[in-house]
Each structure stands twice: as C-alpha cells, then as structure tokens.
Structures
1.
Amino acid sequence: MNIIAKKHIFLLISGTLIAASIGAIAVFGLKPGIDFTGGTLWQIKSTTDNRQLTTDNLRDFFEKDLMVKNFIVYSQETNQSFLIRLGHLSEEEHQKYFESLEIKFNGIEELRYEAIGPAIGKELRNKAFLAIIFVLLGISLYVAYAFRKVSYPIKSWKYGIITLLTLFHDVLIAAGFLAFLGYRLGIELDTKFIVAMLVVMGFSVHDTIVVFDRIRENLLKESGRFDLSAIINDSINQTIARSINTSLTLVLVLLALFFFGPFSLKYFVLVIMVGTIVGTYSSIFIASPALLIAKKK
C-alpha cells in the first residue's frame, strides 16, 4: 500500500472530522455533569405501565407542586427512565420529594441518586483538565527524548510535536462525539468520560510509537538511503497489520461491554471505542505522513 502517496486524502478525512467535532462542541457544547458543577442527579422509572409519567408532567410536578426553580428533566429512551438534574438536596429533601413522586405517579423506582457539593465539583473539574494537560505534555517530552538518536533527517522534537497533535486530534474527535451524544441523548461530561479520554490517549500514543519506532529502526538501518517517503511507507506497511489486529481485539471487547455490560457504562464504552478507532486511523494514516510534511517544513 502506498499510503504516503494518498496522504492528502487521509488528511482531508481528518480535517473533515475535526471540523465536524469543533462544530458539534461549538453548537451543542459539552454538558458538564454534577461531578464538575455540583448538584443532584436523580434517575427514576415507573414500576407500572404509568402513562402519566412523562417529561412534561414531571416538569410541571417539580415546578408547581414542589416549587423547584432550577432543574432539568429529560428521558432515557433506552430503559424508559427519566433523569432529573437539580440543585443540591439534603437527605431529608430527597426523601420528601421521593414520597411525593410515589403519591403523584403511583409507583416509582429510584435507579440512581448522586449528590455532590459545588466546591468538590470545581476541584474535580480543575484536576481533570490538569490531568489531561500533563498527560499530553509528558507524552510529548518522552517521545522527543526517546527519538533523540534519530535527529536526521527529522529533528527528534518533531516526533514529540506530531505525537501531541495526533493525541489532540483523537481527543478532539472523541469530545465532538460526546457533544453529539449530549445533544441527542442528554449524556453529560463527568469523571468517567475524562477517564475515557485518558484511555484513548494512552492507546493512541501506543499505536503511534509502534509506527514511529519502526521508522526509527529503518532510518538507522538504512542511513545511506535518502528516500524518506519510501522508508516511512515501508515502516507503515510493516506495522499496519499489528496495529489493526491489536485495535480490533480491543474493539471486540468493547462491543461485548456495550451490548451486554451495565447500562451506566454504555456510553463510556462507546466513547472509548470511537476514540480507539480514530486513534488507530491517526497513528497509521496521519502521524507518519505528518513526519514527511514536518521534514519539508
């Protein structure tokens, strides 16, 4: 496969995905969960075939009966439940509201109840973003150091910069997908999705380094050969089967978790799966051709 010759096609595909992701984040936004903002997340479901339990009726109940001002109600179609997000509740208020719901709608099952204070939410948010920044910088510096012996014809620091850009590419597309899920299904950004982003980065950099390491070996082995594009293309072809097979193994596991795992992890697994596929694509079709572009620049 002459991947290098078709690099502009692959770069165009990535550019389109990045533009779509930026558009999704700009238009839909990333809905912060209570982990980051503080408050209460409540998931309920009717224990009977109660047609009165609808999104509109729940909104009216919280607004008129309970006199709650700031709240959001949206439905989860996958398990016919409702998610209610509101300010911080005491345990006494929680029990009072639940009893009122049971009386009003005649049989309610509580599937999930989480309450986090605003101070803890702010601290978690700051630490989550710091974790992502430090991981990105740490990986880039490590790659630049690891490739210090192959400073010709590409400077070692360029390997680190390209790795950083590749990771940013993967995380941005995964974040855009999460913004779309938030718009369509009301999925919120919480700590488990930050973990998903870190998993995507870890797997992506693993794949990228495998390809880069083969390029490094071939550059050292064929130091007298000056056709860099041929060396990069040969290196990609030597590692592409390994990269795809490794990713496919993980994707099969993630598919099993998505279809048969707990509902609470369904979209967490989906984000990792999308990030894994994008990360494999970028490692093969974006990171390596970018080395050739970086050499010319």
2.
Amino acid sequence: MPEPARWYHLQGEEQHGPIALAEIRELVLAGTVSPGTYVWADGMPDWLLAREVPAITPPAHLREELTAWR
C-alpha cells in the first residue's frame, strides 16, 4: 500500500508541511488555509490554489459557514 500523500501550503513566502490530508483539511476549517492559499501534495505537477483542489475543498454544507469559501 502506498504512503499517503504529504501536503504542503504556503503562508506568504513560507512553506509549511509535510502534513497529512486530514491535517490540511483541519487547517481549511480553521481558516488557516483559505481558497487563495497555494497548496501542493506528492504527485501534483505544480502548486495550485486551495479552491482548485477538490480533496481539500470543504463540502457544500460547510462552505456556507466558511465565509472565505463562498
């Protein structure tokens, strides 16, 4: 079984990670990772905005509560 992907996110010019998928999802819910935060995981060709990554986009019922993701 392959190891789970390691996730990274940028805050300004500072790179944070590696962290597990569950952890980056928690950062999304806490507001630390916003839709405009760049994220990257093992296997991705390039950094993407968090809003472009379905694996960490909050479900629709939570997006209503998260102002930044509306």
3.
Amino acid sequence: MRRSKLRVAFGTDSETTSYIVQSFEELFGRRLDFDIESDRSLLGGFVAEIDGCVFDSSLSSKLAEMKRTLLKG
C-alpha cells in the first residue's frame, strides 16, 4: 500500500488528526496509511497527499480562495 502524507498545523490535537484520517478513509473506502507531520508553517488546517492527489484545506489556501473571489466582483 502506498503511504499517504498528512501535514497538520502545529498544535493540532490527536483527536482532530484522527478525525481527518477517518474522514479520508471513509471518502476512499479503504484504510489509508498516513505519514503525519506537524508543520509550523501552516497557520491552521491541513494538507493531505493521497495517491498523488493533494487536498489543501490550509488556512492560507482558504484565504487565497477568498481573495480570488473578492477580486472577481
């Protein structure tokens, strides 16, 4: 099985990390083997890489998305 990567914001508790892992396992319909890293560069949220796909739910990506939306209008 290919290992997946999960980077979480520094200080994220184990309960939240477990919830993220469980949510991805439900989404993919199988057990996923994550390398989990606490990343001080993330202000909040997480970034997961699974089967070559990146799921970026970090605070910085959410702010960038909001900025793009505001600049469109």
4.
Amino acid sequence: MNKHNITFAVLLLFIAVQFTVGCKKLVDAKSTDGFNVTADKQSYNIGDTVVFTINKEADVILFYSGKPGFNDSNANRNYAAGTNILKFQSSLSQANTTNMGDTILLKISTDLKGHDSASIANATWMDMTSFAKWPKITTTGFVNSGAVDISQFNNSDSVSIAFQVLGKHNSASQQRKWQIQNLTLSNTLADGTFTPLFAAPFTTFPNLTTDTLPYFQFVGWYQVNVKNNPEFSYITNNYNAWNVGQYGVNNVNTPLVINNKACNSSGVSIQTAYPITFDPGTTKNNPDNEDWLITSPVNLKLVRHDFPTAVIKNYVNTPAKGMKYIRSNNVYATYSFAIDSTFVSGKSYDMVFVAQNTSDNQKNETSRLLKIKIN
C-alpha cells in the first residue's frame, strides 16, 4: 500500500471514529397517553374553590380557565375582526377669531404606499374628524376625543391614522398651535378579548391597567411636511412641522443635530414622549402650512393569542399556587382554583389542562377539557 492509500485509510478511520463518538441516539419524549383530570363537582358558586385531581405526571402542565384571554382554543389565534376603538387627546393654543381658517383633521387611509407628500396626495383618505371631540377657541388643556369607532376599516390589511394640520396665511395673527397625546387603539372581540394595537409585543397575558396605557414608543409616529418647510439653520431650532422624525428616522439615528438636539428634516427637535406638537411659531404673516402626523401602518384585526391561566408545573418542578403533590393511589397531584367575581353566574366555562412532554426531537401533548358551570 503506498503512502497515499495509507493516508486515505487513516482519514476514513478518523471520520468514522468522530461520527461514532460525536453522534448520540435521540431519545423520544415520554408519552402523555392516559393523562386525565377530574373535578370534585361540575357546578360551583362564585366564591367556591374547584379541586382538580391530576392522575399523571408530565414535564409541563398548563391550565386554561376558559375566561376571555385564557382559552385553550385561542392559544394560537393571532387575527380576528372585532370592534376597533381609537382614543386620543388634543389641545389648542394661539387661537382667536382672526385665524378661523386654521384647523386639524383626523383621517384614515388603507392604501398609503409611501411616506412623503406625493404618497399622501395619491392615497385615499377618509375624513373622521367629525367623529371625535376637539378643543374650541376658549378651551384650555387637553380634550378627550371620546371613543372613535374605526371598525369599518378592519377588512383591510392595514390602516394609517393621520392628523392633518392646515394653517392659513394671515397678516393679522399667528397660526394655531396644536398638540396630540395619549393615543390608544384597541381590538375587542365578541368573546370579550381585548387587544391593544399600539403596544409592546404580546409575551404576557392580558392586564387591564397596562393594556389601556398609551405607549408613544410603539406607535411609530412620523411627520410629513407638505407646505411651508423653510430652510433651517444650525443656529436656531425651527417651526412649522410636527416634532417627530420622518418615517424610519428618530432621535437616535437622525443625521441632523441642532443645538445638541436631534431634529427632523424641518429642523424641529424630535420628541420622544407625549405630547406631540405642531408649532407654527408666533410670527404673523406665516405662509400656508400643511403638515401631517401619521402612525405606522397597523392591522386592525391583530389579536393577542390567549395564555394559560397558570403553569401548574414547569420543567424544573416548580408547583403553582394551589398545586399539591400526592403521588399515591393513582393520583399525581391536586390543583385548587378559586371561582372569583370575574366569572359570570349562569355561564359555563371550558377549563382545559394541557400535559406536555418534550425531548430534543419530539413533543407529545394531551389536553383534557372539563366543562364547569357557575351557578
């Protein structure tokens, strides 16, 4: 055997040894067959405690109470048409009887293709101004818009919500100054599921307090200046534009900094929290203004999928509150669950337990449904 054949044979032997040592047999997940749960009764009063008996161990055991937001059948639901309510607050200043041509409009588009003045002009806009409440000349502070129902648009893939300011040239007075803050948008389904649409990614179960908060950072605000965008200087900050960035531009990545402040292309300092302001300055004889404040596109049918009410057991055997290990007489554990005042009398709930066993290459799962009636 020549030296080339010897080298090749040694190489093959090395590969075979490495393959044998490096590979290991994949272990299948344990079966969840036979997993079962029973309840001590089938009907309960509010204030009672249900005691569930679990017959078999699993790596993970999840519990769904059947209430809105905690329904096993909706654990993978991400989209559904519901009622879409828009809310915000607005304020007005520098208002008098000589600048009556100045106004702010609420508009919605389902076909906005870009983020510049040409795209705005080519889009179809529905005027929703009359459906909201607005400040009057004598109003001080912010005015609540009330609930603006925009459900008529939820058959579209996405919508863009805009506030359009129109300021008219006036030699007798300065133009009106507007502010917008605390915008929220929600999708409420017939089963009571409530989803905030401008919110953080949905990694937790519903929370009435945090779900109804206005989150500036998740709206994706941007501005488009259509009329009166005077050239800025690097000495003073400018006016005549909403104080947010253009689409894709924020206070972190803007190329324009004036007086150590991040600015948009109009030279206006970029705001990072509410309120958002359109400031025309205090000069009379200001040219006509047309400026748009627009949200990023949003799908009105977005739904936060339902979450388990409790993880009764996790991979490291941490028991949930109410769980008690038995491990005898064909009983693995019991789980006590209180029927509190959030349940509705006269209604039945599909309470579901899900057992999961997993391995590196497999997942086995079994669900058990118990229909529980509340008296």
